[in-house]
Design brief:
Its EC number is 6.1.1.4. By secondary structure, the protein is an alpha+beta fold. The chain is globular and about 115 Å long.
Length: about 1000
Amino acid sequence: MKYNPNEIDAKWQKHWANNQTFAASNTSDKPKYYVLDMFPYPSGAGLHVGHPLGYIASDIVARFKRHKGFNVLHPQGYDSFGLPAEQYAIQTGQHPDKTTKENIARYREQLDKIGFSFDWSREVRTSNADYYKHTQWIFIQLFNSWYNKSTDKAEDISTLIFTFSTQGNANVNAVCDDNIVPFSAQDWNNFSSDEQQKILLQYRLTYLAETEVNWCPGLGTVLANDEIVNGVSERGGHPVIRKKMTQWSMRISAYAERLLQGLNDIDWSESIKESQRNWIGKSVGAMVSFNLKEHKEVIEVFTTRPDTIFGVTFMTLAPEHELVSKITTSEQKAAVEAYIEKTAKRSERERMADVKTISGVFTGAYAEHPFTKEAIPVWIGDYVLAGYGTGAVMAVPCGDERDYAFANFFKGQSGMSEIKNIFENVDISTEAYGSKDNVIIANSDFLNGLNYKEATKKVIAELEILNQGQGKTNYRLRDAVFSRQRYWGEPFPVYYVNGLPQMIDAKHLPIALPEVEKYLPTEDGQPPLGNATVWAWNTKTNQVVNNDLIDNETIHPLELNTMPGWAGSSWYWMRYMDAHNENEFASKEALKYWESVDLYIGGSEHATGHLLYSRFWNKFLKDRGYAPTEEPFKKLINQGMILGMSALVKKVTEILISCPKIGLHNIFKLSNPVCLSDDYYVVNSETDYNLRKLYINSIDDEKTKKVLNGIEIGEIEIKEITSSPLHVDVNYVNSSDELLIEEFEKSTLYNSNFENTTFFKINEKFKVNREVEKMSKSKYNVVSPDDICNEYGADTLRLYEMFLGPLEQSKPWNTAGITGVFGFLKKLWRLYFDDNGLIVTNNEPSKESLKSLHKTIKKVTEDIENFSFNTSVSQFMICVNELGAQNCHERAILEPLAIILSPYAPHIAEELWSQLGNSESIATVAFPICEEKYLVESDKEYPVSFNGKMKFTINLPLDLTPAQIEEIIMKDERTIKQLDGNTPKKVIIVPGKVINLVG
């Protein structure tokens, strides 16, 4: 009976689906365990072998926990709103819903083929109205909430309204806008409804405001910082500029300290925690007000070094700072405007990362020093960001490297003062002194002679007396822009009355995405929903109606923006807990039972995006009494990447030909480019001749070609001038790194990049160069898991991916290694079957077999609990080799072996379990327990040496005394033969280690 993985895989995948084998219960008496993979986006390309890596690891843990008696929730779904589907819709005219559903069907087919134990009964899709109905509901809760700093949590907006109506806002301790105007209770009660709404927008956790955003004209939308790489959009590589727009934002900054402190309570890698700490960017210092000369406005500056205030020689504003247009003099206006336009083309990340470029412009304005009253020139420079602090810097060149470089670069220009040194016994002639340690302040009036701490405390006190500053803790974390000018996203449940946002009552949700003819922005620049003709809200019938009916009395315009990609993924783990609940995102009972995710597996690239937003939403929902825990994910593992093994060829398009005999030294283009085999440099005279001849015959100058063909090859020197490495599709490369040219010539890639190209072979073979790179379509190094499953079975794929190396490390894919794992599974199969069928017996197993089994149980249990999956696969191989050598076919060994293999290779394990006569699925059978008694060594293979040279070995019980060992050795025929009638002078015996006969 042969091992037929395709037949076995199909059989058990069908069985699991039909029997809902992995469906979790919300009312089980078992302990719960929730294991989750990061929400996948279903792209049209489908899965490559790198994608399942984390899924296989999570599946091993999920299956193991079921064996250990847990009620396991291991769900799967799709983050199905997003820009790729919309871009495809723009290009093809197909509705994003159609392509998204096609992509999901492809993903589901591939996922099923690998045999994951997902509870598909809980599948969710963020683009389904029955899902985003709850995303809209959460948005409404955020809108109807404010952050009370006194209680350190979000509260219902009604409590704030009550305070306003009874006390005014003087004593309200809230996270809110900076430009809050004080008012009394009487003022509030006299305000119009519109005035009250505008004030509340300054406090709400989601609010409308004019914000500096990353605008991508090429995509027609705003991008989050994490969607920009090197100043261009991650998708498509389009330029991104900074632009002011009225946008929905979320006050994630209210949670900065809690997000920071919460990192101490979760089991995440230190690198991810550090990424979030840096992103949140807590700084302790002071807020200082600098009055402007000849202007009523003041420049607010946050500084972590208020002790250096007497070293201020100039100020720098971000080019986008709102004061720039107000204070710039007419003489400087043209230079300032040109600089602002130039800066708008650089992203914040690019500006932060670029520490080498120094640029700026003097505004012509001057601020006033709070203490000395001297004039301080005000510049703009792109190293200052509008979104960090106040967008203004009090520049102290002697104490800050960037200020120092800026001051020196513009030294001698009008508006740039001399650098002041305010540090005692410190040389700043060549560089700034940025350390706080061992600093004594000098040339600083009342701060002279003080250290950093003393000076900081004193200067804050003096600033407070002048009413020009106070101590403050600041965070780099900025409020998150929540609007996108896209079609394929969650519609906001918002309509507008007199330009002010109104929430649609939750009982009327979902507000479904309307149909549009075009997915591009409108001609007048409105988002794609501006193309919708039925997109107005009737406040009487509570329905979406035709835009022509808008009267701004009972029928009002709806919001045209949609929510960002991270909206649906910021709470999805809770939906899995109660996926079919129509009335709530999840019931209190389900939330209480599952609480939070016990194990979360996904990529580290989401550190400052999804992982931060998820923690924010979870904390908010906890504050409002909807979520049971403060943190969403207890343990996080970031899997590494499986890298592709790319195949490249050297393509030559131009050559330099030298021939002194005819006075030739020219560069020629090749009419037919030449691709060289990777071993072309290993040439003999014949191949060298053939290559030179090929080059000459390929040049595009017929006259020169004719002349050169009449000259001896040895008299012609040829050099490759223009050549480039080009990717070829790895699917046309065999295991010997040889390009299958005839098959490759039929491909689309050949027709686009290699048409009319000559492939120069060596010994009738063309070898490619292999390089390890990220697996992607653009590098043509993608390997489909379908191909592996079809040829070797899903269990081979699962075991091989785990065998490649530690989960958290990146490792290269090498299809050649698959055969070794497949061979292991066939060897395992032969322990149970021969050509005639099952050969398992009920005989008593040997001590050696029991030892091999229990050693494996111990190792695999420890490995899964420590997430060291690669070493488990090694142990399985060792065990099967040992059992094969022991000719083991005993049920007492092979039945538990199938169970411990089941998390890794579930299809073959189910088949073996069934063939052994078991009717129930192996999925929930109790995991075998390691019995240490079988691991205790009862005997020892002793090396027997004569005068230190080992001559033979002997197996002896470990409980023998030295005298008993000596007696046995002396009677052994091999000893008698070695001694040849002589008597040893000494017999050295160390029990369990050494037997040595001397003399």
